[in-house]
Amino acid sequence: MKNDSYKNVFVSRAVAKALLDIKAVGFVPDAPIRFKSGILSPVYLDNRRFPFYPKQWHTIIESFIKLIAEKNIEFDVIAGVEAAGIPHSAGLAFAMNKPSVFVRKQAKDHGTKKMVEGGDVAGKTVLLVEDHVSTGLSSLAAIESLREAGAKVEICFAISEYGFTVAAEEFSKHKARLLSLVDFPTIVDVGIENGKIKPDQKQVMLDWMNDPKGWEQKYQR
Hints:
Number of strands: 11
Helix content: 40-55%
CATH class: Alpha Beta
CATH architecture: 3-Layer(aba) Sandwich
Number of domains: 1
Largest sheet: 7 strands, mixed
Oligomer: single chain
Order of helices and strands: EHEEEEHEHEEEHEHEHHH
CATH topology: Rossmann fold
Radius of gyration: 17 Å
Strand order of the largest sheet: 1-11-10-9-6-7-8
């Protein structure tokens, strides 16, 4: 299955603006951070900030609802990936009057030891919601947990994605589709237009996005 950043340009740009307005886009070329996936990055997206900014968060939830309508996506339950995906999945489920669950990254060593919390998804079609996708591995682990619980899962929503080839390849291997509201190049372009990203920063960001390993090698020289 094919990954697909949102093709509604108006919505994608509105989401990019929301990210920039709440200062969720960070540029740290002199002190790059290492993602859980191992990738060293001069940029980061902190979508966890959205619930603190209701106006911009409303943009995200409404954009997901538009995406569902435009793609004619049918589902029974909305699931969020622990922990950053949960506010967005719960907010979307509440807005659409749909059941909501969340998927743990690992089972607790006590209690029921469930990976899927909140309800029984066996036999249900589940729409997974993630805050951001880099390599996609955490999202795909959640998809597998849902499938093991008996759910049918084919689509994962994300607010944003970097657009790494490895993510597209991994989603395809797992017979799942990633649909993001905005991709990283759009965020950069809107940031340039709004004066929140400088032209010299843009080149570093795009160089890194196009070749993360190559960028890391240059940084470490």
